[in-house]
Task: inverse folding
């Protein structure tokens, strides 16, 4: 499939790299290609600057948000939560029409320092705001509950026996994401469909617990939860 990943951070890199490795024609979107490649800040995941990462992943073409959205049959929103609506506007509403939009973002507000708070919760979620702003996109919330490194390598933890969630209004879109991307692609074994896009509230409101677990757990970001009965 042709996939346009919006975002050049740890998540955009992890997803683009893995999707390309799986054989998908993948393009990664940024605001401005030249300034993104000129960036000198190394990512926290050890993947270096974007230019260094791009050099190691020649199969992933770095393009603008708009070009990535035009190209992709499936779009991934891996942009900073506070900027996601703006990034998707830059991608172009018309370029999202009818397309599956996998939203992995979290509405984290770092303006009052660490730990971040949620910029919205309880009665809405970033995924719902995205679905409302882009009604023709088929938004599927997923992967936001684990760190970037776990998203594409669930087998690295407890043999993959832990839980990933999906939520969204479009059943067909959810089935496609669950089967083609999560299960067959990344190797997730336990995927729970939580229902329509309103279930993204819980997925995003899990973040304070995720942050507490990371700080208390001693395992860094390499952990996940399993739903057991
Ligand atoms: N890091 C994780 O392990 C993790 C795990 C789960 C979910 N998430 C969520 O996934 C998303 C991506 O996280 P990340 O850590 O990879 O990177 P990030 O630093 O949160 O986001 C980087 C991306 O956001 C874009 N961006 C920033 N400000 C913007 C603005 N004003 N307008 C338009 N675009 C803007 C950047 O564009 P440029 O390329 O132009 O700079 C870049 O592509 C976030 O919503 C995060 O909460 C992260």
Result:
């Amino acid at each position: 499939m042709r996939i346009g990943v919006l975002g050049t951070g740890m998540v955009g890199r992890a997803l683009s790299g893995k999707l390309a490795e799986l054989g998908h024609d993948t393009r990664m979107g940024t605001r401005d290609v030249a300034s993104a490649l000129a960036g000198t800040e190394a990512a926290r995941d050890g993947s270096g600057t974007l230019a260094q990462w791009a050099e190691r992943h020649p199969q992933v073409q770095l393009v603008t948000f708009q070009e990535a959205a035009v190209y992709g049959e499936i779009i991934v929103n891996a942009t900073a939560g506070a900027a996601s609506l703006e990034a998707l506007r830059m991608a172009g509403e018309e370029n999202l029409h009818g397309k599956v939009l996998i939203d992995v973002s979290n509405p984290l507000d770092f303006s009052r320092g660490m730990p971040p708070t949620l910029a919205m919760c309880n009665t809405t979620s970033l995924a719902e705001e995205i679905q409302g702003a882009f009604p023709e996109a088929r938004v599927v919330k997923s992967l936001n509950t684990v760190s970037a490194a776990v998203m594409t390598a669930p087998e690295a933890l407890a043999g993959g026996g832990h839980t990933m969630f999906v939520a969204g209004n479009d059943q067909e879109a959810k089935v496609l994401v669950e089967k083609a991307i999560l299960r067959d692609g990344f190797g997730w074994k336990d995927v729970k469909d939580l229902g329509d896009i309103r279930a993204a509230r819980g997925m995003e409101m899990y973040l304070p617990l995720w942050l507490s677990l990371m700080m208390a757990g001693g395992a860094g970001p390499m952990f996940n939860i399993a739903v057991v009965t």
Notes: The two ends are 36 Å apart (CA to CA). The pocket of NAP is lined by residues 7-12, 30-31, 36, 78-81, 83, 86-87, 104-106, 108, 144, 147-148 (CB under 6 Å). The beta strands are 2-6, 25-30, 61-64, 74-77, 100-103, 108-109, 117-118, 138-142, 163-167, 190-193.
